[in-house]
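Bug #77: duplicate submission created two jobs. Keeping one. Sequence:
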Amino acid sequence: MVSRGIFYFVTAILFLAGILLIAYQRITFNVPFVPNLAREIWTVEAKVEFEPNIGEASEVKLSLPAVQPGFTQLQQNTASLGYGVNYVKKDGTTFVEWTKRNPQGLQILYYTADILVDEKSQESSMIVPALIENVEAEPYATAMREIASTASSRSSNPYSFANQIIHELSLDNEITSLLLSKYSKPELLVHILNLGHVHARTVGVLDLKDGRRNQRLHNYVAVFDKTEYKIFDPNNGHSGLKKNQIIWTDNGTSLLDVAGGKHASVSFTTISNSVSAIEAGNRKANIDMVAGEELIPFSLQALPVEEQSLFKTLLLLPIGVVIVVFLRVIVGIKTSGTFMPVLIAMSFLQTSLWIGLIGFVSIVGVGLIVRSWLSHLNLLLVARISAVIITVIALIGFISFFTYKIGLTEGVKITFFPMIILSWTIERMSILWEEEGYKEVIKQGGGSLFVAVCAYLTMSSFFIQHLSFNFLGLQLILLALVLIMGNYTGFRLSEMKRFKPLAVQIKNYRNGDETELESVRLKEELKEIKADPHNTYRTWKKQAQHMVEEEETKKDHE
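Kept job's structure:
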């Protein structure tokens, strides 16, 4: 016999393993606990147009989206007929490179990327730039130093310094007019920040607007404080990106380089898509596995759709089993057959609750009538069960045909009832009727229906279906719960009413010539058993033997 310690240890291991497996799927694959959650994916298309030089080969380089917090790139592809395509990574920036020997006429190239809005993503490809020495000619250098000096006196850190410079550039005076006549605001802001020994660079930012075409990048400025940075809009001084803005170029590289062509341009089209959180998590995990991360995909999503549908139903069975074990072992409800209610509940999932209940009662009722007639023929068990099976099949066929003819198409689904189980249920109920009477049949039949309805209501929940299919660790937790409930040997809840008078007597009365209440004495004995069960047992055994010896001695004297 297995010791209680080993049993509880194994149960705890199963429960803990289930919890860890659920946590692994939640953290690694970002599987939500709530069904029907959607994630946003932006499809961004970059359209490159240029005119090739006659008789020359063309080489086109397009900077690809930067790695940044809040977004994860899931997929990328190109459309470029007749071009060689290569992805190149250099100085922290990834490019797509198109090459062709002798292009003719207007050339149009497409690059498409799917970008997931991912709040958990914290990676960044931004590199701290080197300071650029100011070699500007006069009077521009003096004007820049003047603005840098004024802004520096009113600031306390690189970010406030950048804000003050943007404020100075927004003023309408001779200095700003002079500088803005030669430089753009982003370029000018970077030059002045470098004069103040603040690292900064220009970045290209794209607005993500659903259904927008022919968009261009906006030039913002990344201002660094050691390794941290903030993005500033040089036009108004606002820091940080808006919710639907992404950085496309972040390391000082040009967006587009064309060799062997002219009149090149890039435009962007953005479309928003909503996908389930599970699909988004799986796609993200696939990207991590391609990148070399060792992830174990504990997910049934990798199976073919037909097998997924099968497992989605099968994984609900342990839920129903737990309901049955709880209601039978803990509550004490009697059923006809051990797990027949679970199979009936599975049938209710295919039909509907009311159609299933009416069908079940009709089939079992007519089956009992037929079975009572068969009992008078003195048939052997195998022949009798076979006759009941044929009768059940005929009843199911008749009910399906009749309900279909009168327009109740839901009745056709009654064919999902387990015919063999129904036949054995009819046989057991018939024998029970002969031995115990109709009251016991009604009690067990009603208990079976009650348990089946409870299991159906649990298994039909979208929340339960979502958890059972997407978190396989739940099966280990259910197994641990079944083992724990199977170890219960106390009173069932339905039996408590029977022992209520005894509980009242124990609480209010003394036993025999005892000087203390029976409830107090029982509590003290329980404490002794918990404190030292083996010695307490030996002591009680010796006391009992002593009492028996005294009784025998009295009888001998008499």
